Amino acid sequence: MSSTQVETVKTNLGPAPAEAKGKLRYIAQGHLPRASPHNFHLPDMSEFGDERFLTLRSLRPIPTLQELPTCSHHVQLDTQGFTAILHPTPLHASPFGSHSFKNPELLKEHVIPNTADMLKQMTGCKTVITEALLLRSALWSATDSLAAHGSVQGETADLETSFPQFIGFNPINGGASPASKVHLDYTPEGARTHIRKFHPNTTEASMDIIRHEDDLVAAGKVLSEDYKHGEGPRWALYSIWRPLKTVKRDPLAVADYRTYSNEDYVPVGVNTPCLGRPGTSETHSAECYLARHSQRHKWYWIDEQKPEEALVLKFFDSDSEEPHGVSAGGVLHSSVELPGTEGEEARESLEIRCLCIW
């Protein structure tokens, strides 16, 4: 990324409001949600009975990767559980455009290695396994293209069985819709199920982790207490989220991990296909968290987020587990509805999900 490229982006950012109000959907106090029968789907919208217009705090100004360590005022992965950086990829320069981010071959060649290098610099990890790329380009619907992923046959089947997975890229079913429900994709149990069940390539890359965890369990140990103090490698799951065009509606809002308490989290299963196994329709339940509202929660977003601006979210971190905690440093998040944006075009965004190993 050249200095000229960075300065051009910074010049185009413009001023941002310090705060805005947006609609966020929680689980009502006392309610126990039912899991969705659809693959990759959170519970039905009717399960989220506590809708609130809450304050969103702006993340601007957004630093570059090089500036991030010295920005004491900016959110950080190791404290809040997420961060935002100005980080153009090769596809943000000519002759490429937003359409290039819908091309799996260009993403493999340019964006996946660029993202892996960024994560290594940001976290200090040794290995980055890119597991999935998720394209969202539709308005919200109760059952979108996610539910059909893994079941398509014919000439596009390689998108369903290859590694990394390209989810929402199938031209027949189209892109996914925004996830407008407060959630964290994995509980600690869900994260451990994920590395064992999601795809054979993920499991193979995680074998040292899995062996060490299984040995600890066989010895009667508690993983949240003993894993990070043992000989197994540290591991974490991250999501790198960026738009394909300036976000005019349904932006991503992220909560400060430190403002949540154990009692705020609501676990629920998400039906998930066991991918990369041709000829099987086997599924597994990967536990995630929903949430109940508290006045302590603090939410952040990037006003009119640009394609060169990336949000980096932590889903799980073996180093962040605590004996009496329920979330290993992962952050709750949601697409958020902003008043007056209902007539804008559907948001287009790309999420890259990675397993990092130290």
TrEMBL record:
Matches recorded under InterPro entries: AsaB-like
Coiled coil: none
One Gene Ontology MF term: oxidoreductase activity
Transmembrane segments: none
Tree of life domain: Eukaryota
Family: Belongs to the asaB hydroxylase/desaturase family.
Name of protein: GA4 desaturase
Origin species: Emericellopsis atlantica
